[in-house]
Amino acid sequence: MALTRVSLSCSARLLPSPLLQSLLRPFSSSTSPLRSSRRRSSPIAAAFSQASQSPHAVREGQVTEAPMPSSTRPWKPTCLYYTQGKCTMMNDAMHLEKFSHNLMMDLPVNALAADKVKPQKLDYLLILDLEGKVEILEFPVVMIDAQSMGFIDSFHRFVRPTVMNEQRITEYIEGKYGKFGVDRVWNDTAIPFKEVLQEFEDWIGNHNLWKKEQGGSLKSAAFVTCGNWDLKTKVPEQCKVSNIKLPTYFMEWINLKDIYLNFYSRRATGMTTMMRQLQMPTVGSHHLGIDDSKNIARVVQRMLADGAMMQITAKRQSATGDVKFLFKDRIM
């Protein structure tokens, strides 16, 4: 499948040119890596497990242990204003020193590891990890190439509830995001779920993964979630609250827990368990959606390098119908 490459390189992104800023899409941050060359290699586990074990302070909250992609480049938290398309400090040296504006830095690919990837039926994987129990508060997607494991693009939006009163929203956000120090950026940038989906459809359309006029499922791509809750339960619930029809591209997905169980023959109740079993340190703040999506993407990269096949594990029969689970051995 031909992918529309509309992203700018990291070095270009850091230039303060007004023209450059006008070219940046308002809903993504990305780079466009070339597919890694295929070479015979030795075992690759070290490419994903060796990392710095030093904790870093992030924003005003806490952060878990983070890897350093290179020995000379320390890990930095992602600028969440940038992921919302609203960073106004791209020419501020201190801001650029403190925050990352390139999600690819957390998802490096070792060419020797990429050599181990088996041919996949899907071309692209959209790692999704929603946040919000009452209503969806955060909609982050990390897109990677299923064949090369390379980071392609990201979509990230904070979501403003539609039926909660302002006092409840304030309590909700302070309780959820205050501990990470990102409640201000949430309040500055959150938009209703219906608008988020409109922007997301533009994003997948720009990547030739789906066409609104044709409907149907994604083209040679699939969502990857850590569990069935995100697409089996939460998105349909939110669509009802937002009074919109469940989009057709949400009808099937890959539950990474099921792939993990069938590939490694061991159970993992969640992302942190997977990373502990694979001896991989986590990046960023757990339960901050964009950071969790990056961590899940890193697990996917590792599994691809180990030889796993990413396959659809669940399909919804209709917008209001039951879900069919395709794996006999699965996490209940």
Structural class: alpha/beta
CATH architecture: 2-Layer Sandwich
- The N- to C-terminal Cα distance equals 34 Å
The CATH class assignment is Alpha Beta
Largest sheet: 8 strands, mixed
Which blocks of ≥5 consecutive residues have pLDDT under 50?
Answer: 1-71
User: What count of domains describes the coordinates?
Assistant: 1
Mean pLDDT: 83
Helix content: 25-40%
How large is the share of residues in beta strands? 5-15%
Can you describe what's shown?
This protein has about 325 residues and is α/β, with parallel strands linked by helices. Helices cover about 35% and strands about 10% of the residues. The chain has a single domain (about 10-35, about 50-325), classed as Ribonuclease H-like superfamily/Ribonuclease H (Nucleotidyltransferase, domain 5, 2-Layer Sandwich), CATH 3.30.420.10. The chain has 13 helices and 8 strands. The protein is globular, with a radius of gyration of 19 Å. The two termini are about 35 Å apart. About 40% of the residues are buried. It comes from Panicum hallii var. hallii. GO terms for molecular function: 3'-5'-RNA exonuclease activity; nucleic acid binding. This is Exonuclease domain-containing protein. InterPro entries: 3-5_Exoribonuclease, ERI-1_3'hExo-like, Ribonucl_H, RNaseH-like_sf, RNaseH_sf.
